[in-house]
UniProtKB/TrEMBL annotation:
Keywords: Signal. The lineage of its organism: Bacteria, Pseudomonadati, Pseudomonadota, Alphaproteobacteria, Sphingomonadales. InterPro entries: BON_dom, Lipoprotein_DolP, Transpt-assoc_nodulatn_dom_bac. The keyword Cell wall biogenesis/degradation does not apply. Residues 3-71, 78-146, 149-217 form the BON domain. This is BON domain-containing protein. It holds the Pfam family BON. It comes from the Bacteria.
Length: 217
């Protein structure tokens, strides 16, 4: 089992290795396997990339994310300009039903609302909004319409697990109730837990995933 010092070095090395993260102004502290990220980045996407890189490190039990977005000496982007750019991006992306999504921007913080048919549409809208210059954060309040869950949803999820080279499907338990999927069991690394959750979200008709998988180091 890694010590907190070893885990801190591993997280710092992972942040330095990831080309999408400027690690120079990011601080890393570890206590009992819980990693606290602090400091500054220049955009929201980089902030999310730093969190994602940290989750890839074996031994990370939880993350306290305190990174702030601090823009460079570029002119401040007005809220209405940010909103227009987001709406334009949505209209160009065929994966996003832009006519079903509402966009609100206040002091650079974006709030998305509305109702879509599939989870991936909501996720794509959030990611697209986060890429816009001037965005300091995104609250995704988009709801996924409750569609009938297919009878073979569990089989679809198991098949998706087995296609993933990094995931041992035998260690994950799957229960379905209505439009909800509950995941349990144990995996060996944090990223395996993420693979399992993404596979569950990809199943048709799923509107909620409860991830109770335990990471065993």
């Amino acid at each position: 089992m890694k010590t907190d010092g070893q885990l801190q070095r591993d997280v710092m090395d992972e942040l330095e290795w990831d080309p999408s993260v400027d690690h120079a102004d990011i601080g890393v502290a570890v206590k009992d396997g819980v990693v606290t990220l602090s400091g500054y980045v220049t955009n929201y996407v980089e902030k999310m990339a730093a969190e994602k890189a940290t989750r890839r490190v074996s031994g990370v039990k939880a993350i306290a994310e305190e990174i702030q977005v601090r823009f460079k000496s570029e002119p401040h982007t007005a809220d209405h300009e940010i909103a227009k750019r987001i709406l334009d991006i949505f209209s160009w992306n065929v994966s996003i039903p832009h006519e079903k999504i509402n966009v609100k921007v206040e002091k650079g913080w974006v709030t998305l609302s509305g109702t879509v048919d599939y989870y991936h549409q909501s996720a794509e809208a959030r990611k697209s909004a986060a890429r816009i210059s001037g965005v300091t954060g995104v609250s995704n309040l988009i709801e996924v319409k409750k569609l009938p869950v297919t009878s073979d949803v569990r089989e679809r999820i198991v098949a998706a697990f087995k296609r993933q080279a990094d995931l041992d499907a035998a260690g994950v338990t799957i229960y379905t109730e209505g439009n909800t999927v509950r995941l349990g069991g144990r995996v060996k690394a944090w990223h395996e837990r993420g693979v399992a959750e993404r596979a569950a979200w990809a199943a048709p008709g799923v509107t909620k995933v409860e991830d109770n998988i335990i990471v065993s180091f």
